[in-house]
Design a protein that fits this description.
CATH topology of the largest domain: Nuclear Transport Factor 2, Chain: A
Number of strands: 23
Number of domains: 3
Distance between the termini: 108 Å
Helix content: 10-25%
CATH architecture of the largest domain: Roll
Largest sheet: 8 strands, antiparallel
Number of helices: 7
CATH class of the largest domain: Alpha Beta
Radius of gyration: 34 Å
Length: 431
């Protein structure tokens, strides 16, 4: 009688063990499923949180500052201060210009999470929250660079000609800077002057307006006088422009203290009738008539000897240069430099005005050499160093490659070489 009872007990034990094992397996499967669901939920948290972040936009108005715009979005003073200080470490906030846009992303709790200011088509200022702190960085916008050819004709001004060719005023300034030592685009341009060039153009995926890269070769035909410029490098390896023969385009002085929007209203003269004093006396400079606020540039690198108000000269900037030269910039509405400061050639040092003895807005520009005033309009100075002899073969190859891409099937003076591969110059980073 005992053996059947033991058999029953064993059978029940086995059955219980099987049930227990199955329960354990079911439990473990449930735990694995729950773990996977938790991981998936955690992975979804950033996405869900991002969906709840509220985007804000503010157009930059004249005189607006980053701190003022953030305050107008109802961020607390501590956030405004921390964000502004983080941005200041990587970007000059004075460069925030009207017409731009500030984008900010705010959490449901009202915290500033991200901020973005579009500096220009190539750069953005990004500010990111890190716990209770903020970090800022300048990010570059990806761009596709193409080489393009531009050609046009001048009827009124270089500015108008560039615009008629479908380009922007920036390109007019860039081209004027290249030939600034030989051509005064205020006075030298003539109807039917022509220009052509090959340059790099940057196009952006976000639809921003294209930006200009390097001008590789350029030509300006001024009433039959042909000026050409080829981008190469000087003896130290820095980019520089040379004539087709390898002569440097750079000279000690620029041809004009103004880039555009000026005409010569009075020339250098030892006997000129003064319109205010009503007497005949020497006028030892050149007057450029231009609107108030027109930027005035230093025609050469130098040091500021005087910057301030001086009697009939009005607001005056006096620069000292090498070889005993001094330049005077008179009647300014505003002075942008200070005494003792070193300035570079082409740097803006003031704005055209009508201060002092002036009948209207203009710049009275004067040049003195070794204590004697000279006629700037008829001054001839030697250029800088030409292409080094050791680099002439490389220069000729670069010149011929770019000339072959110029609109109009090249220049007869050169043997057109094989055009470079698309964007080949960008790979080396050298002209």
């Amino acid at each position: 009688m005992k053996r059947p009872f033991l058999w029953v007990i064993a059978a029940v034990a086995l059955l219980g063990a099987g049930v227990a094992a199955k329960c354990i397996a079911i439990r473990r499967a449930a735990e694995r499923t729950l773990s996977e669901q938790i991981r998936e939920a955690k992975a979804d948290v950033p996405t869900l949180a991002a969906e709840r972040i509220q985007p804000l936009h503010a157009d930059v108005k004249s005189g607006a500052t980053l701190s003022e715009m953030l305050s107008a979005m109802d961020f607390d003073p501590a956030t405004v201060y921390s964000t502004t200080e983080a941005a200041r470490k990587v970007f000059n906030l004075r460069r925030i210009r009207p017409g731009g846009q500030l984008r900010v992303w705010r959490s449901p709790q009202g915290e500033l999470r991200y901020a973005d200011y579009h500096i220009d088509p190539e750069h953005d200022l990004w500010i990111t929250r890190k716990d209770e702190d903020f970090q800022a960085q300048i990010k570059e916008t990806p761009a596709v660079v193409r080489m393009v050819a531009v050609t046009g004709e001048v009827q009124g001004s270089l500015y108008d000609g560039i615009m008629a060719a479908g380009e922007t005023p920036e390109l007019a300034v860039r081209l004027a800077d290249i030939f600034a030592w030989d051509v005064d685009f205020n006075t030298d341009t003539q109807p039917n002057d022509t220009f052509r060039m090959v340059l790099e153009k940057k196009e952006f995926a976000d639809g921003s307006a294209p930006a200009y890269g390097r001008i590789l070769v350029a030509e300006y035909n001024n009433a039959g006088h042909l000026y050409q410029a080829v981008l190469f490098h000087d003896s130290s390896g820095k980019p520089a422009y040379y004539s087709a023969k390898g002569e440097s385009l750079q000279k000690l002085f620029l041809r004009s203290p103004l880039r555009f929007a000026a005409r010569i209203s009075s020339h250098f003269s030892l006997h000129r009738y003064h319109p205010i004093l009503k007497i005949v006396r020497a006028h030892l400079g050149t007057d450029y008539a231009a609107p108030v606020g027109t930027p005035v540039q230093a025609i050469a690198a130098g040091r500021v000897v005087f910057a301030g108000r001086k009697g009939g000269d009005g607001n005056l900037v006096l620069l000292a240069h090498s070889r005993g030269y001094e330049t005077y910039y008179m009647h300014l509405s505003r002075i942008l430099v200070r005494r003792g400061q070193t300035v570079r050639q082409g740097q803006s040092i003031g704005l055209v005005g009508a201060t002092g003895l002036a009948t209207g807005p203009h710049l009275d520009f004067r040049l003195r050499q070794n204590g004697r005033f000279v006629d700037f309009e008829h001054l001839h100075l030697p250029p800088a160093q030409p292409v080094a002899k050791a680099d002439l073969a490389d220069f000729a190859a670069v010149r011929d490659r770019w000339m072959a891409l110029m609109p109009g099937a090249g220049i007869k003076a050169f043997t057109a070489g094989k055009p470079p591969a698309r964007n080949a110059s960008l790979q080396s980073g050298q002209p």
